[in-house]
# Entry
Amino acid sequence: MKTKIQSTIERLITYGVIVATILVMVYYFGTVNKKQKEESERKTKELTSLNTQKEEADKMLVERQAKVNKITADIEAKEEEIVQKFDNKLRTSDSYTKFIEHIQRKARALDILVQNSTYDFPAKADTYLECKFSATVSGQYNKVKRFLWEVENAMGWFVKVSNIEIVPPVSDKQGNMTLKLTLTTFLINANRTN
# Structure
């Protein structure tokens, strides 16, 4: 009998342990698995959101790259246009003596005395030549000022005053002043090969 009772108790304990194990497993899979599913759904939504953001960013990148390409093309076209305009304003190196003659004519027309003139003509260049004409000029202040303005703006040449120095005294008793100046013009090399 003792064996029978003992056997029955052992069976009850075994069944109890099995039922408890099943209940723990059901609880575990019910709660933990539910949390994992919720976490998995949250991560899936987050991944979908990130993929959407990536697609939008890719679209924006393509749009911006198209804008950059358009701007680059516009800049290149503008550069070409500027170079063409620059070339059209320039004269060839063969006409350098005419440049000096125009400077001297302009000075005579404004009663400006040109002395000690020298010029520097570069020997070799592929496309553009930077030619300098240096001289000492004397005349009344307002005429010298007008001469400088007309040389840079009204001669039809691309000219800049690249160096200017006032020779003391600033003006003499007659109101005349003396300047040492260097004028620079750019010419297209007449011997260039395109």
